[in-house]
Design goal:
Chains A, B: InterPro entries: Anoctamin, Anoctamin_TM. Chains A, B: It holds the Pfam family Anoctamin. Two copies of one chain form a homodimer. The first copy, chain A, has 22 helices and ten strands. With 683 residues, chain A is of the alpha+beta class. The first copy, chain A, has three domains: 174 residues, no CATH class; 362 residues, no CATH class; 45 residues, no CATH class. In chain A, helix 9 packs antiparallel against helix 10, helix 12 runs antiparallel to helix 13 and helix 18 packs antiparallel against helix 20.
Chain lengths: 683, 683
């Protein structure tokens, strides 16, 4: 590339050849790539060329316009695609679509008439689907053997088979890549979802899924089901709080109810989840054994053992070695640090209490609360550090599939957060065995965390909203500048404004943090339920506002995230189930340790036998829990039958097709036999 | 049917029409149906007609010869099938066969050339496969709406959709239905399998599977792997026995080793099992959701929700009602009886000990052992009764699928036998807390059971062998009579002799009892391993002889069983895993209760804390066990990859086929367009 002219004009030249299939409706940008202001021109042009080059030359074959922002010298690529290109992408990515027979089948262009909605190709894919298809195509532009480095960046080495765009992103040559909001659709969705008048209505889960994809849809469905499931324990908590019924059975009954209830909730969610994913056609996607590797999975270029296609290969022993030799020791050290900090806190607290006991006064009273404050801050800092460590370790392990990458990350985060947040509760409950302290600790931590969370989640959106309207004004001023500096004339000016606004919006970090928050809350509610019966009420109140503030943020505050498909809540289901098992142990132990309860037993039972009795009870509860989980089918009967019918019918259809093909062949042969003269023309 | 002539002549008439496809090689009987001597002639002829009638008329379309035994007035039907009929059966039963592409696909006659071994249709199916196909076809002769009762038996009502042959068998009009041995093949197999010179060789698992089917193949594979897995604990047991190393760690170390080892063994078996079933092509048969119902599943004739085909339908709530209202109470009562009998035993023993202590003498010494003897006899009787009860309850529950019928039966048997055999051990170990008594009890029960078992399994075959040779002589004498009385002249006389001999052989009861025996043995070895380290050695010695005596029985003593397919050891895997979990609990408790071990702990630890420490250890071990089981994949990597490749390649092939079909269509249309005149002939 010897030319040094402005990128835009280059685009226009290429664009013309792509105008044909696009139709007359003007260019509709769907995904935006934003370069840093200091991006090297050669790097921009190289990526641009790759985006536009045909598939056969390793490109993505997409439509691109350039937008140059005069005020900050940034270049943006607005990316669109023709319908034909999207159909091809859907076929290559083995997307499942609803077939005329009512079931989901892998889409092929060949059979497009057989799929529901194919009579109007414009609306055949939702906007979210289009953006997802395009993202995958952009991510799948991989470096060839000859691409040694990014043009203009001698130091940014490329490895064959590795995703190019991920390199641009990781080296911050491209600052961000995001899909654009659909202003019309988001307005309608928001009205239904977070408007106060719909406060007591169920969330429009299917519409959420349509706009944000299955993964976010499942998160909000889970949040909803979980919140509803908190009502019974919250009611009991209120009754306990207002009535004066004091009995030794009080806590035990509540704990037993909670153990049963948490099992029912988790089993119920699993069933509801499989209903949803069945309706969305993603229920059996998890069984796909030949998924494409993650975009930034690296390794030497080899062959996939299943498909035989070239792809990066990374030996499993290396991953195991990294896991056992790096991840495990690092995590152990981190958890050990968390434990030491907790011990340090209790030592400080002990010291402060001593000082206060000797010298009661205003300043000393304050001093008593200083250690707790320090500890709270430290936990927060540690949580932040651990999150980064978990991500680094997980990247380092180089998992091949998106799903396994995410599962491993979730497991690490869960372990860190569980230890970090709950270790002091366990210490108080079972080492110090101080019931009063446990109660105050539990209520303080839960309430503090939720108040802080509420402020962060309900107030911050307000601030964002104000900031955003200011941005809007800025953008309006800037518009003229934009218009003069760009040569993407066929892009709607309103769309350009929207692009500039959205590029300044915050990025949604994924459902990980949201789930983690629920996970910790679930732990606070169920782990020590006999110690703090009001926990469920607090959690419930928190969640009903959280749903709406989360919804508002999704619609108005964040950049639109790329839709991701999901077949279940995956590792989170396991995580919540583990909390369920641990809560059996903790609650049995708490009740068993209660001196009031121990008094109930016949006086000739020795202390050891008391313990043994409670251990036996605990084992029975665990066994019953396991049996219940085993006997309740994970999938509702109607979904099972429908899935079986789908399998059966597709098999029947296949057989019929084979039969028909054979008959055609036979008929042709017969004809050829009857009239030997026409044989050559027939076959 | 007004004719009263002998059945045989009727057969001959029908037979002629079936001679065509059979070829010139004479009639080869594969399956035998034996009527009782008092069977009504009309019933025999009706079944005969059903067996021969074409599929379209509800028959089985098989080849049948009649054999009338003069000496006991019994009628036998010798059943064979043409190759075409077997191919059709294989297609209807959706049998999977190895395809040219190396994978297993459902067999279709259409694509027969694509399947391995199809160039020689005679040997395309093994004899075991042929017999299995025929059995299914015979069982699938179902009563039509007009078949009210079995002809000649006004009182034997038939229900539409119910298997006719099962009714004949249950009312003992047909005494037995069995496949014939292949004398040549069984001789070769036996030589390899149980001859003393091959004592230290591995079992010929693949050949066993070929002759007896996957289910029996898996049993012997499991028995082999399990026996080998006993070597390390047996060696340690010997070392413990011969060395004088006495330490408090002794039992604890052994128990820990056993816990780890049993987990590794069970996970290892799961992986090996999936390798075997992958190679045999049955690995994913368990996922089939539209299996045919069990032959004696009953209900009103309705429609299958999946396939839409007519089949008996039985509402699920009825099954649940029967389970909760009948099965659960009956089982509870049975277990309660077992408990009462155990208490009675200890009461008797106590009384006998008292008498002996007061009055030591010969007769009183004998008296001390009387209660144990009575208890042993009672356990044996109870086991027998419970087995019958379990079967009755299971039949009553009316499960739809063979697999679920068997799983439920296995669960019931396991529960009964576990409680019956182990309840006294638990009582001694944890209620009486008498270590010496536990040790003697455990060794007595294990050794007694195995000695009795060895006598039964090693001596009885000898006796059978002698009885059988006598039968052979009888049969030889009888031969002339047989020949005179039958009109199945195209059956080889030697085969007729064989049939008579085999009809008198014992019936193999299935793998259930064999697994149950191993299950109990596994329990004796691992549940209380710290109390009796030599258990593994005893079990090992027992099993290496058991393998050979079982093999001998399979080949020489029993009637050939029908081959059954299996994708895994199913409920047994779960049962062994449950024993593994329970053994963690029992061993931790045993070690924790050991006063020697307790002395090791610092003296300032209170008794309660000792218990708590051991409970904590136990929980950790269980958690580690769960984690290990979770992280070791159930299927070896190579099998996973191969299965994924199979899925991928079949998908690719399907796509290619569709493409080709479309191209053909396009080409035809084009031609039609070019030469409009020939259009009518072309399409």
């Amino acid at each position: 590339m010897e030319t040094t002219r402005r990128v835009g004009s280059g685009v226009e030249e290429v664009k013309i050849s792509h105008m044909g299939p696009e139709g007359s409706g003007g260019f509709e940008p769907l995904v935006v790539l934003e370069f840093t202001a200091s991006a090297n021109q050669a790097a921009i042009e190289w990526l641009l060329a790759k985006l536009q080059a045909p598939k056969t030359e390793g490109g993505a074959d997409l439509l691109v316009r350039t937008l140059f922002l005069q005020h900050n010298k940034e270049t943006m690529l607005l990316i669109g695609a023709s319908n034909e290109r999207l159909l091809l992408a859907a076929e290559l990515q083995e997307v499942k679509r609803r077939h005329r027979d009512g079931f989901f089948h892998e889409f092929t262009i060949q059979d497009i008439q057989e799929f529901v909605g194919s009579d109007d190709l414009e609306s055949f894919f939702t906007q979210a689907e289009k953006q997802k298809l395009m993202m995958k195509e952009i991510e799948n532009i991989r470096a060839a053997e000859l691409d040694v480095h990014i043009p203009g960046y001698e130091d940014v080495r490329l490895y064959p088979g590795k995703s190019i765009i991920k390199k641009y992103l990781s080296r911050e040559i491209v600052v961000q890549m995001f899909p654009l909001h659909d202003e019309e659709a988001i307005k309608r969705l928001g009205n239904e979802w977070y408007q106060p008048k719909n406060f007591f209505k169920l969330q429009p889960i299917h519409k959420i899924k349509q706009y944000f994809g299955e993964k976010i849809g499942l998160y909000f469905a889970f949040l909803g089901v979980y919140t509803v499931s908190l009502i019974p324990p919250a009611l009991i908590g209120i009754i306990y709080f207002v009535t004066s019924w004091r009995s030794v059975y009080r806590e035990a009954l509540f704990a037993i109810f909670n153990l049963v209830w948490s099992t029912i909730f988790l089993e119920g969610w699993k069933r509801y989840c499989s209903e949803l994913t069945y309706m969305w056609g993603t229920i059996d996607t998890a069984t796909a054994k030949f998924e494409e590797p993650r975009a930034n999975y690296h390794g030497h270029l080899g062959k996939n053992a299943v498909t035989g296609k070239p792809e990066p290969v990374y030996p499993k022993w290396k991953r195991s070695a990294r896991f056992y030799c790096v991840t495990v020791p690092v995590i152990s050290v981190c958890l050990w640090v968390a434990f030491i900090i907790m011990l340090f806190y209790f030592w400080m607290q002990h010291w402060a209490d001593d000082v206060y006991a000797g010298n009661k006064g205003w300043i000393n009273l304050m001093l008593v609360y200083v250690p707790t404050a320090i500890y709270a801050v430290l936990i927060g800092i540690l949580n932040g550090i651990y999150r980064k460590v978990a991500k680094l370790l997980n990247d380092f392990e180089n998992h091949r599939l998106d799903s396994s990458y995410e599962n491993h990350l979730v497991m690490k985060l869960i372990l860190f957060d569980f230890v970090n947040c709950f270790i002091c509760l366990f210490y108080v409950a079972f080492y110090l065995q101080d019931r009063v302290m446990l109660n105050s600790f539990l209520s303080t931590m839960l309430v503090t965390q939720q108040v802080v969370g509420q402020i962060r989640e309900a107030m911050v959106p307000f601030l964002f909203l104000r900031r955003r309207s200011k941005q809007l004004d800025d953008a309006l001023e800037r518009r003229k500048v934009v218009d003069q500096q760009t040569d993407s004339e066929d892009v709607d000016p309103a769309a350009k404004k929207q692009i500039v606004v959205e590029s300044a919006m915050d990025v949604y970090d994924g459902t990980m943090d949201d789930y983690l928050e629920l996970f910790l809350q679930f732990g606070y509610v169920y782990l020590f339920s006999s110690a703090f019966p009001l926990a469920a009420l607090w959690a419930f109140l928190n969640n009903i506002t959280e749903i709406r503030s989360d919804a508002f943020k999704m619609c108005r505050v964040f950049q639109r995230p790329f839709a991701e498909s999901a077949s279940s809540t995956g590792a989170w289901q396991v995580a919540f189930e583990i909390i369920g098992v641990i809560s059996v142990i903790t609650n049995c132990a708490l009740i068993g340790m209660d001196p009031e309860v121990q008094k109930l037993l016949p006086s000739d039972v020795t202390a050891i036998n008391v313990v043994l009795i409670f251990v036996a009870v605990e084992h029975c509860v665990l066994a019953i829990k396991a049996a219940v989980a085993y006997f309740i089918p994970d999938t509702p009967r109607w979904v099972q039958i429908e899935m079986a019918r789908m399998e059966y019918e597709s098999k029947q259809a296949l057989q019929k097709e084979k039969m028909a093909a054979a008959n055609r062949k036979k008929a042709l042969l017969q004809k050829a036999f009857v009239k030997p003269a026409s044989k050559s023309t027939m076959l």
